[in-house]
Amino acid sequence: MNKSIREMQLANKKKVFYLNKEEIEFLDNQMENYVKHGIVLTENSVVFDVGANIGMFCLYCCELCSRNPEIYAFEPIPQIFEVLQLNVQRLDSDRIKIYNYGISNQTRNEVIFEYFPGASGFSTMYSENLEEFRNSIKSVILHNIEALATFINEIRLIRILPSFLQTWVVDFELNRKLKSKKVVCQVKTISQIISEHNIQQIDLLKIDVEKSELDVLLGIKNQDWSKIKQIVIEVHDLGGRVDKIKALLSTHNFGKIIIEQETYLSNSEYLNIYAMR
């Protein structure tokens, strides 16, 4: 096992493997936000977890679905996939299938991803201007420091500092964590997966792919849209992307579409879209 992989116990007493503790605290708090506004999962639900990261949503689905969902989880970054593999092995279920590739609008064997070892959840297929990216994350943290401090221990410690020290410490930590590596990965499309596995229905399509969310949806062929019953997407609202996704979902007969921003992400580009038939 990679020496950078560690293990910790969550508030519910479950143990998980992880790469970065602060991310675990954030993700553990975030899981319930994927299943709200009428999104329903039951035993035997078929779930596509696109952007599975280390598998926190897989673990959460198992809790919701009496430990018996059918999950297809996709994570392109090999270093993150190794942790996903360890966490899913603990579930001891042949109904959870994990794949070391990403999902996009076309199949490609070699795509360059930006991998952030110190903040794996930010890893993306889209190249970042690191200075702009760091400044945007810094702004989100400082603007929402009270809300974030309720569930991230590191932010709780920063919050008690004078404001000028808060800025300095956040700068220091982001400079340390937001260093990226180029990683070559493979990507496929949702429709290719549906065809390869003869999937007749997807009860929930969950997408969290750091700016590739529209690409994922554009990789769904017209004949496959009706197989998808519910969708939840983290969207980066850049270039009118929320409006584009809402229009696409409406075109494919999702009658209930809810757009929401979490309180701890206010004044940021991050929003969630919930869509149901």
Describe the fold and architecture.
The chain is α/β, with parallel strands linked by helices and about 280 residues long. It has 10 helices and 12 strands. The protein has helices at about 20-30, 55-65, 80-90, 130-145, 145-150, 155-160, 165-175, 190-195, 215-220, 240-250; strands spanning about 5-10, 15-20, 45-50, 70-75, 95-100, 100-105, 110-115, 180-190, 205, 230-235, 255-260, 270-275. The chain has a 7-stranded mixed β-sheet, sandwiched between helices. Helix 9 links the parallel strand 9 (about 205) and strand 10 (about 230-235). The N and C termini lie far apart (about 45 Å). The model has no long low-confidence stretch (mean pLDDT about 95).
Compile the SSE list and pairings:
Layout: E1 6-9, E2 15-18, H1 21-30, E3 46-50, H2 56-64, E4 70-74, H3 78-89, E5 96-99, E6 102-103, E7 108-115, H4 130-143, H5 145-149, H6 153-159, H7 163-177, E8 181-188, H8 190-196, E9 204-207, H9 213-218, E10 230-236, H10 241-251, E11 256-260, E12 270-276
Parallel strand pairs: 3-4, 3-9, 4-5, 6-8, 9-10
Antiparallel strand pairs: 1-2, 7-8, 10-12, 11-12
